[in-house]
Amino acid sequence: MSDGAPARTVRPITPAQVRLLRHAVLRSFEPPEQIIYHGDEAPDTLHAGAFRGDELVGIASVCREGMPAGREPGGWRLRGMATLPAVRGEGYGRALLEECFTHIRAQGGTLLWCNARVVALGFYEHLGFVAEGDEFDIPPIGPHYVMTRRL
Ligand SMILES: CC(C)(COP(=O)(O)OP(=O)(O)OC[C@H]1O[C@@H](n2cnc3c(N)ncnc32)[C@H](O)[C@@H]1OP(=O)(O)O)[C@@H](O)C(=O)NCCC(=O)NCCS
Asked: What is the pLDDT of residues 82-138, one digit of tens each?
């Protein structure tokens, strides 16, 4: 880049790479190799990695999974949305989600949902998600809402 700042890129990464950041940012109480989510190995799952230069600084994964309680079967689920504290507010989270939206649309998907941590609600709202239903707790992490994004 002309200003000398490291380039920001988003590209597919492996489940092993994604687990390192899941551990670092989201689930430090579990070893990385045990942070395995349903759908991680499915062929149409996307593990998106955001890079600042060569450094992996953010992750997001999307897999085919209907919403809880059978609502809206055929949806896609977002898991493991995280950026390193040093890069927050610089657009990496948005770039990751936009890559996920593109991937889901290319597969014919029209709905993305997630269990959103309350501390991240504002981020998701900025990206067009809407909270649904009541707050609920996921121990040991804390309060969450289901959020949905129409695509
Ligand atoms: C939530 C998280 C992924 C956001 O990533 P980020 O790289 O800071 O996001 P961006 O810089 O792309 O922000 C996109 C927009 O959301 C806004 N935003 C980011 N975090 C926000 C928050 N917590 N509350 C309100 N707005 C927020 C930004 O200001 C920006 O707004 P703009 O487009 O008008 O400038 C990051 O803070 C994080 O990893 N948090 C800890 C882990 C976590 O809670 N993950 C979510 C699990 S459900």
From this structure: 999 999 999 999 999 999 999 999 999 999 999 999 999 999 999 999 999 999 999
Cβ atoms of 81 and 127 closer than 8 Å: no
Amino acid identity at 84: L
Q: Which of 57, 70, 67, 59 is nearest to 15 (CA)?
A: 59
- Domain membership of residue 83 (yes or no) is yes
Q: Is residue 2 part of a domain?
A: no
pTM here is: 0.95
Question: Cβ distance 146 to 67 under 8 Å?
Answer: yes
Evaluated on CA atoms 14, 56, 131, 107, the torsion sign reads negative
- Owning domain of residue 95: 8-150
CATH code of 114's domain: 3.40.630.30
Q: How many domains does the chain have?
A: 1
CB 104 near ligand 1, within 6 Å: no
For residue range 114-126, list pLDDT tens digits in order: 999 999 999 999 9
Is the minimum distance from the CB of 116 to ligand 1 under 6 angstroms?
yes
